[in-house]
Amino acid sequence: MTKRMTQSPILTVNQSSRRAARVAPFLAMDVMSAAAAREARGEGVVHMEVGQPSAPAPRAVIAAAQSALASGALPYTQALGLPSLRERIARHYAETYGVSVSPSRIVVTTGSSAGFVLAFLALFDAGARIAVPQPGYPAYRSLLNALDLIPAPLTLRDADRFAPTGAALRALHARAALSGLLVMSPANPSGTVIEPERLADLCATARELGLRFISDEIYHGLAYGMPTDTALRYDDEAIVINSFSKTWCMTGWRIGWMVVPDWLARPVERLAQNLYISAPYLSQVAALAAFDAVEEVEAVRAGYAANRALLLDAFPGLGLGRTHPADGAFYLYADVSNLTDDASAFCRRMLDEAGVAATPGLDFDAVDGGHHVRFSFAGSQADCVDAVRRLKGWLR
Ligand SMILES: Cc1ncc(COP(=O)(O)O)c(C=O)c1O
To answer: Cα of 218 to ligand 1 centre, how many Å?
Structure first.
């Protein structure tokens, strides 16, 4: 018995699966840990590394959670979510976009992060190639890798304001056949909002090429002058992924949703039942109150707009180089090629010497990320003022 056990390759080799090994670390989270270590030593840090609102969830959300807690049991719900929340989310599409979506097409998820896993598993078989924007949110690439799918970088160009285009999609598909396309607007890290005509063209191109269209709309509601439109207006079959994390300041509540075509609801339901049973009841009940907190959400957005204006004004004088469009979301993605070829080392020094935590571009772009740094302006105005003061001293 003992002999057989010691001969087992599983017991003798301490090694993760190849798919787990393919998953890159999330550098923003690593910077967050380094910043926490600095704070534990009693040294100050301005946090601009993680895309997370510093404001709490709207008051009505917190009150709804408190009353649910006081009432006792916090049960599982149906895997697709509480019917009342699915209905409220469907109403949000009618009210915000004038687009009609049946509640039967809404899936409540544990943040948009679970929405990606569900979408990828429900739509694609192993080996399928999915176009993802580059620079782009790193978890797309990592999750696809983990699921034996192939992320195909769709390089975003300055000439297109860092928005994906139908022509670029066509060219990528011609090189090696794709099965799907994932876009985000407003984008992380560039902040680019895809204009309605371009979104319509992307949807039409994807449909013509027979590709599944996944639209990450998590930063909708956080734009500074440009309208954010849902892909559902241009393609009723689009898979839309969204979340309460950013616009409603609910990152830690782990609650989001998907809109799927009718035929996909049951496959997604089966996956959700087995992956996590249901999104947390408490967060679902609380999220029901979120859509009505219009004034609070607008006040937070106005704060971001002021932070954005402050940083856009200050950055050129700091010598930080050009920034991507920042039409929406809460990031400035700065070109630091005049200062370094190694954004990771640059960010380490910036944290150690100036106490400003920001994320190196390699998180978002394996090719040109070494020349970029992402600064989140989701904190307070005082944070942004402090960051500029620290950077001025450091980059002098
Ligand atoms: C573009 C984008 N999509 C999705 C997420 C994940 O958000 P959550 O899982 O909290 O909904 C993030 C988080 O930063 C993001 O930037």
So the answer is: 7
Summarised one tens digit per residue, pLDDT across range 71-119 is 989 999 999 999 999 999 999 999 999 999 999 999 999 999 999 999 9
Domains by residue range for the chain, with CATH: 17-56+295-395 (3.40.640.10), 59-292 (3.40.640.10)
- Cβ count near 91 (within 10 Å): 13
The stretch 269-278 carries a mean pLDDT of 97
**Closest by Cα among 214, 365, 383, 382 to 374:** 365
> Which amino acid is residue 46, in one-letter code?
V
Instruction: Please say whether the dihedral angle defined by the alpha carbons of residues 168, 173, 176 and 178, taken in this order, is positive or negative.
Output: positive
Which residues are CB-neighbours of 289 under 8 A, at least 6 positions away?
Answer: 58, 60, 61, 63, 64
- In degrees and rounded to multiples of 5, residue 359 shows phi and psi of -105, 130
The C-alpha atoms of residue 161 and residue 159 are separated, in whole angstroms, by: 6
For 338-351, how does the pLDDT look when each residue is reduced to its tens digit (9 = 90+)?
Answer: 999 999 999 999 99
Q: Can you tell me which atom of ligand 1 is nearest the CA of 137?
A: 1
Distance, CA of 256 to chain centre: 11
- Inter-CA distances, 239 with 105, 190, 264, 361, Å: 10, 22, 9, 28
Backbone CA torsion sign across 124, 126, 132, 136: positive
**Contact predicate 51/188, CB 8 Å:** yes
- Ligand 1: residues within 6 Å at CB? 51, 111-113, 137, 184, 188, 216, 218, 243, 245, 251, 256
Contact between 157 and 383 under an 8 Å Cβ cutoff? The reply is no
Q: Which of 112, 134, 185, 363 to mutate to test the pocket of ligand 1 (most atoms within 8 A of CB)?
A: 112
- The answer to whether the beta carbons of residues 371 and 343 sit under 8 Å apart is yes
3-class SS string, 335-376: ECCCCCCCHHHHHHHHHHHHCEECEEHHHCCCCCHHHEEEEE
Helix (H) or strand (E) holding 43: none
Instruction: Enumerate residues 6+ apart whose C-beta is below 8 A from 287.
Output: 61, 85, 108, 244, 248, 250, 253, 255
Nearest to 330 by CA among 161, 179, 190: 190
